[in-house]
Specification:
The protein is built from ten helices and 14 strands. With 293 residues, the protein is an alpha/beta fold. The protein has a six-stranded mixed β-sheet with strand order 6-7-8-3-9-10, sandwiched between helices. The chain has a four-stranded antiparallel β-sheet with strand order 2-1-4-5, with helices on one face. Strands 12-13-11-14 form a four-stranded antiparallel β-sheet. Helix 4 packs antiparallel against helix 5. The longest helix is centred in the middle third of the chain and has 18 residues. It is elongated and about 75 Å long.
């Protein structure tokens, strides 16, 4: 496993990540969520060995990651802005990977490229952002890593390429038992993929748990107020959000229990039904609570 223990990193005196701890396990996909500037990219670059944290440790099966090239070879990293030697063709870049990574599997790259369809003779400078993301994913997977760190990997991908990417990612986890940490603003994708979700806020870990556990503290209800309701009465702090169509209200309530059920009935609620809540709705609700605190 990759274990991050209490790491911090600053730029020009400004804290980017602050005392972060988390664990990435083999055979699991862990999502990383947070606003722009929350520290996701800095954390991933520290875990890839690009940045060195100012405090704390990052270990791979109890071995320190930094200054340890043999361990870094076992970790694949795909950036939101993949930088390669622009004048090189893809074919020449393949040779670079074959030279520097003994485990590189060219046949695997070529199998992936049957679906991603990049021209091996194309210069990297000529590729679109989405094509560079495809290239980065194929190169890193063909290294046969034990862990993959992915920073907004679907950025720039068209719907067909994104579908292929997600399918191949799940396939790698299932077949090779690799561990994955993936950051994305596309919460719908993460909800389908991830075993656990870590939420960053202002450089700190706000929560780390399975999606079902994350949802336990919040409840989404559809409530019918047949005679209407004074919406000011719904603006109590445990009601994180509400919307309505006619007399049908959709509420997201924190720590819903029998007392809150009685409170709604006292307000005139008739029919009430608990609804499934998506990761996106959950995240927005949590951000609403943050903004009002």
């Amino acid at each position: 496993m990759i274990k991050v223990d209490n790491i911090s990193k600053s730029y020009n005196g400004k804290v980017a990540i602050d005392s972060i701890s988390l664990t990435v396990l083999p055979g699991q996909i862990q999502g990383l969520v947070g606003d722009n500037g929350a520290g996701k990219t800095t954390l991933i670059k520290c875990m890839a060995g690009i940045f060195k944290p100012e405090q704390g440790t990052i270990t791979y099966d109890d071995n320190d990651l930094h200054n340890n090239p043999s361990i870094k070879e076992k970790i694949g990293y795909v950036s939101d802005n993949n930088e390669y030697i622009g004048r090189y063709t893809i074919k020449k870049m393949l040779k670079v990977y074959e030279t520097y990574f003994p485990s590189f599997d060219k046949d695997k790259f070529e199998r992936l490229n049957q679906e991603f369809k990049l021209d091996l003779g194309a210069k990297i400078d000529s590729l679109s952002k989405g094509q560079k993301m495809r290239l980065g994913f194929m190169l890193e997977v063909a290294k046969k890593p034990e862990y993959l760190l992915l920073d907004e990997p679907t950025s720039g991908l068209d719907p067909v390429a994104k579908k292929t990417f997600l399918e191949r990612l799940v396939e790698e986890v299932e077949k090779e038992n690799i561990g994955v940490l993936i950051s994305s603003h596309n919460l719908g994708d993460l909800e389908k993929l991830c075993d656990t979700i870590t939420i960053l806020e202002s450089g700190k870990v706000k929560s780390e748990s399975g999606l079902d556990e994350l949802k336990e503290s919040l409840t989404k209800l559809q409530v019918v107020f047949e005679n209407g309701v004074d919406e000011k009465l719904l603006s109590r702090e445990t009601v994180l959000s509400f919307s309505k169509v006619g007399n049908v209200y959709t509420l997201i309530i924190e720590d819903y229990d029998g007392k809150k059920e009685k409170w709604l009935k006292d307000l005139g609620a008739g029919y009430m039904e608990e609804l499934d809540m998506s990761l996106e709705e959950l995240y927005i609700a949590l951000e609403t609570r943050k903004g009002e605190s």
